[in-house]
Amino acid sequence: MEVGKMIEAQATAATFGHDMNWHDIDWAKANRVVRRLQARIVKAVQEGDWRRAKKLQRFLTGSFSGRACAVRRVIENKGKATPGVDGIIWKTPELKTRAVLSLEKRGYKPLPLRRVYIPKANGKQRPLGIPMLCSYCTSYRRFRDGQGHCIASFSK
Asked: Domain segments of the chain: what residues?
């Protein structure tokens, strides 16, 4: 995903049928949808139905609720004010909405990490790589979608 592409994304959602706002999202419903899909993934894995589990993972990754929850999780952590290599911070509701709508299932090409050196206890410095916010959202979505699979596999 390119930086310009994210900025040009329109703030409309087919699920709402009108222009949407970050504050209009029903977070209880979005979390409920994500949890329900995760439970269905766990159930499919426990039953050994790998085709259905993979289909549900793809559905969760592309769903509006999944994308909204991923963006919300990324912007509500301690590092939310640290820009990545692209220099973008999602502070305003409009930018957050565009971020949700611009995340895509496929075709994401991450940019290289921004390298920052932080001090160690012994006085030396160590490198720290800071990715873009889109990278955080994409990796969180993939982690969350595979989380049910891991839990179901190890709980036997």
From this structure: 3-154
